[in-house]
Amino acid sequence: MRITKHLIVSWIFSLILSGLAIASDVNLSGIYRNYGLNPDGTDYSGEVCIEQSAEDIYMTWSFNGATSYNGNGKISGQVVSVDWKAEFPVFYLIMADGELHGTWNDGTAVEKLSPIKKDKNQTCG
Fold first, then answer.
1. Which residues face 53 on adjacent strands?
2. 113: alpha, beta or left? (left if phi > 0; alpha if psi -120 to 50)
3. CA atoms of 85 and 49, how far apart (whole Å)
């Protein structure tokens, strides 16, 4: 099933309205389960490791037990932006329940990160 850009934008807008956490007291460090939709509408899942130091973060995405992508990012308010060496960064909104809801590939793909294990001393790789 193909997901149109219009549906993705609507989904992101609904996430904004559903309530966001205040990032200043949030430490995102830990292991997350990720679920997403690629630009072509196919789904994927895996794990993401996040290390946080102040407003700087380091993320590692793993699929089928192998590291596939990593990137460095910043937290600004409730928004996390991550440069993962692709044409466009990944953007996430920090949700009140600890999840991160985001978009990548210039808004044509979406991803949700759900915490599995929160650990303020988490190291990735």
1. 56
2. beta
3. 17
What are residue 31's DSSP bridge partners?
Answer: 49, 117
Task: Kindly report, residue by residue over 61-105, the tens digit of the pLDDT.
Answer: 999 888 899 999 999 999 999 999 999 999 999 999 999 999 999
What is the rounded distance in angstroms from the CA atom of residue 43 to the CA atom of residue 30?
Answer: 23
User: Would you list the domain boundaries of the chain?
Assistant: 5-118
Please name the residues in contact with 15: beta carbons below 8 A apart, sequence gap of 6 or more: 93, 95, 101
Rounded CA separation 41/61 (Å)? 19
CATH no. for 5-118: 2.40.128.120
